[in-house]
Amino acid sequence: MPLPTIPYRPPRLPEDEMRRRGGDFLAEMDRRRSVRMFSTDPVPRDLVELAVRTASTAPSGAHMQPWTFVISGKPEVKRRIRLAAEEEERINYQGGRLPAHWRAALEPLGTDWHKPYLETVPWIVVLFEQRYRVGADGVRRHHYYVKESVGIAAGLFLAAIHHMGLATLTHTPSPMAFLTGLLRRPENERPMCLFPIGYPAADCMVPDLARKPLSEVMVEV
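RE: above sequence
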């Protein structure tokens, strides 16, 4: 049965206003950086909730909304995540699990297996993708375009966090399966990305990055 419909009539803005809004948003997102130096200052929980709600406006395959955001500010949970993530990353960096070309690509960024911020940051958010769901009737229902849908939600979450004046990092320890058991998630969910959330530290430093010009990322045919 088709869903009921409602009117959609967003205001049509003058082109100059559209350019101003687009330019302002571009400038804001261009200032965004992945942060690994966080303040321990507390972050209100409702700010994290706002970012999750914003992320959940993302389009998704067949409107299945196949994501779960698991948040925690508990010191014991954050410590367990840090220790487990560092062990996986230590094997990556020191145990040879990362190929040489990958390590060479990471070297200019100065990253290594130490992740102390995972324990000291006010909040950790782990985004899980739902491969399917089980209804109240016990029937398994397939989800569609899961990775694409969850990826869009992750981007909106990242933008929302930055827009509020907070900082984060897309951390993907590989493999990530330890997060499923550690956070007691059901078997239909798989971890996709981990976000530490907080304010940048007063002495925060980030790499001086240059993004690709438009000519390298857009093609008109």
